[in-house]
Structure to design on (321 residues):
């Protein structure tokens, strides 16, 4: 019983910290990223695509509000 | 504070951090969350659109792209801070030089370009173009430098249209110096300067200064129960301005 509860709790914690369903294929080291944004980014200064940031490194941080 | 926000602070405009909310929150909910924690006051960008799948299922996770858009690293930003810093520093060092494979005759032009010296870069590239063996590369380089200078002016125009007048002014100051000698580009820059200083932007300047002052206070002291009221008051005092609209929107987000 305790093991079942523990497993269920761990599963729930795992789900809570997970991202929502991904879209598109997985990007890997060595791949080139390209993407056009459909809507404005907050503080985006009019940025329309990742290509607009070529010339400096870009750190994309995936985070969650929950 | 998220580790990546600290990296943005540490490296300033040498790197661009983009935060992607990945648990299905609406754009407003994500913005409100970040605003309430005073995370929005720097140059980091925020979106709910996922540009790609990193493959990781835990949050947070990151993908670091090179200056050319190539994936360099991915993983947990908290666990890989020193690797991220090393990779960023390597990119910054690389970014000061000409791209690999650049003909020697064009290296100076590229170094100028990397420093933001558009006019010098264009002139050096055109001069190098007199040598037949690099003529094609030189023409391509000059075209690229001109296009990037033009894009930088487009960004200034965008800032002006959207009420980011201080950013427009700061960027123009730097750009104007770097464009001397390129008549067409200088004419564009001068026109933007004139417009920025004209009466047409008087109301927006007042709203912009007020909004920046309020955001600076929020950044220092955090969001509190008076922040919403202050934003509403700012919006009322500066109707018809982009900064007034921004204040009204943020106030309604906080309700």
């Amino acid at each position: 019983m305790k093991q079942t509860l523990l497993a269920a709790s761990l599963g729930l914690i795992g789900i809570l910290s997970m991202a929502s369903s991904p879209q598109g294929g997985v990007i890997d080291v060595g791949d080139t990223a390209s993407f056009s944004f459909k809507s404005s980014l907050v503080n985006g200064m009019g940025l329309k695509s990742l290509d607009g940031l070529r010339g400096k490194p870009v750190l994309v941080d995936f985070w969650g509000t929950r | 504070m998220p580790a990546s926000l600290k990296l943005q602070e540490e490296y300033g405009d040498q790197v661009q951090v983009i935060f992607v909310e990945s648990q299905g929150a609406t754009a407003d909910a994500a913005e409100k969350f970040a605003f309430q924690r005073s995370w929005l006051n720097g140059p980091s960008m925020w979106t709910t659109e996922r540009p790609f799948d990193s493959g990781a299922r835990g949050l947070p996770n990151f993908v670091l792209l090179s200056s050319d858009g190539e994936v360099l690293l991915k993983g947990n930003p908290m666990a890989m801070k020193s690797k991220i810093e090393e990779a960023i520093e390597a990119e910054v060092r690389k970014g000061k030089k000409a791209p690999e494979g650049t003909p020697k005759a064009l290296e100076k032009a590229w170094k100028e370009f990397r420093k933001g010296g558009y006019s010098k870069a264009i002139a050096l590239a055109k001069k190098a173009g007199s040598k037949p063996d690099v003529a094609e590369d030189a023409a391509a380089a000059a075209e690229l430098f001109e296009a990037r200078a033009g894009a930088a002016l487009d960004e200034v125009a965008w800032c002006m249209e959207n009420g980011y007048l201080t950013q427009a002014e700061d960027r123009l100051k730097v750009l104007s110096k770097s464009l001397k000698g390129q008549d067409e580009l200088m004419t564009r820059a001068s026109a933007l300067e004139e417009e920025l200083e004209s009466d047409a932007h008087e109301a927006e300047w007042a709203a912009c200064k007020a909004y920046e002052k309020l955001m600076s206070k929020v950044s220092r002291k955090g969001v509190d129960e008076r922040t919403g009221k202050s934003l509403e008051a700012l919006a009322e005092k500066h109707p018809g301005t982009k900064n007034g609209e921004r204040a009204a929107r943020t106030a309604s987000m906080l309700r």
Remarks:
- Chain B has eleven helices and four strands.
- Residues 201-254 of chain B form one domain.
- The mean pLDDT of chain B is 94.
- The first helix of chain B runs from residue 3 to 11.
